[in-house]
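hey so u asked for the seq, here:
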Amino acid sequence: MLWISLHLSELPLEALLRGSLLPEAWAVADNHRIVACDGKARSRGVRAGTSASAALALAPQLRICQRDASAETEALLGVAAWAMQFTPNVALDFPDAVLLEISGSLKLFGGLAQIVGDLREGLAAMGFTTCLAVAPPARAACWLVRTGKEALVTEAARIDEAISALPLAVLRCDADTLESLEAIGAATVGDLLALPREGLA
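ran it, structure tokens below
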């Protein structure tokens, strides 16, 4: 099986504003912290994680809207429904990613490069910023895409090498679990893979 993971990295913003040509800088906040912002806001130093008050100090004209989880879910479901033209095997990876199992679709759609190109083009036309990763197991595709760098790993034999250097943050564990893992010396996915082979075996 070969999976494509589509990470909609700006979903909190694009679920509310995609397709709008707005003169102001915009950001989305959740619990008084910025979770997403547009290029105009970024150019003024606003980043995800910045407090709303600090963001307004950096960009006094910044327009901040509150996060709308239901709009994000609706947008994600829309992307998943659209992606079903490529394969019936589509899954959601909440809150902001869609997975497609495409091994059975490769010949039908002209190969992996063609499918990847069609996905990029279609999502851009719909107003979504997307990062994309390809890997044989779905979980590896999810981990790879959450680094923010595009990755295409088509051979199962290369998976360990591809994911071993990834930071533990891609696992999306809670803070306590991450602290526990770091306390035993694990900093990357590769460190976790090594534990059963060395420490626990």
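Residues 69-83 form the longest helix (15 residues). The longest strand covers residues 3-7.
lmk if thats what u needed
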